[in-house]
Amino acid sequence: MSSSIFREYDIRGIFQKELNEDIVKKIGFYLAKALLKRVPNASFLAVGYDARLHSPTLKGWLSSGINKAGLKVLDMGLVPTPANYFANFNEIDGYKCDGSIMITGSHNPPEYNGFKITINNEPFFGDELIELYERIIKSKDIKIPNNHDFIKIDAKTLYIDYMVNQFSHLKDFKIPFAIDCGNGVANTVL
């Protein structure tokens, strides 16, 4: 595993080469452990993903590690990154997440993917990502079985309702406009 995938603000790598099943399961496991260290009574880690074809596979591997660490996965499904962050600050379907992981390759070529992480309403970055890397490197013997269990939540509807309310003053906006979502998934909430 290359330390270069652990960047200042996120984890980014090539699917199957740098982000393979073993590494992603360990990322999920040790992120859940980091959350439990910061919030000892934590229960839920929310996971959302972008439109890359391998994002659901990464979600399954990540969930296996999170479940092995003793947390439950709140699955947001296909959501834009802002909806993922929004979930950290709101109760959704009766659940309050203690952190979130957004699986996204962002602007990178299609073979890339990665993770943006929030723990206890704060970004998980810098030295914390280096420490995560070091824990994974030292964990050669840990085996994490497949466990893709999750609780499905609807983060999009609450996010949409919030945005409609916040921008209600634009209801009768008369100037036509177009939105180009590029390869992102903002269209799922627009």
Supply database-style keywords.
alpha/beta, 190 residues, 18% strand, 5 helices
Question: Please, could you describe this protein's structure?
Answer:
The protein is α/β, with parallel strands linked by helices and 190 residues long. Helix content is 33%, strand content 18%. The chain is built from five helices and seven strands; from the N terminus they run βαβαβαβββαβα. Strands 1, 2, 3, 4, 5, 6 and 7 form a seven-stranded mixed β-sheet that branches. A hairpin with a 2-residue loop joins β5 and β6. α1 packs across α2 and α1 packs across α4. The radius of gyration is 17 Å and the shape is globular. The mean pLDDT is 94.
User: What's the total helix number?
Assistant: 5
Helix fraction bin: 25-40%
Could you give the order of the helices and strands?
EHEHEHEEEHEH
The rough form would be described as globular
Q: State the major sheet.
A: 7 strands, mixed
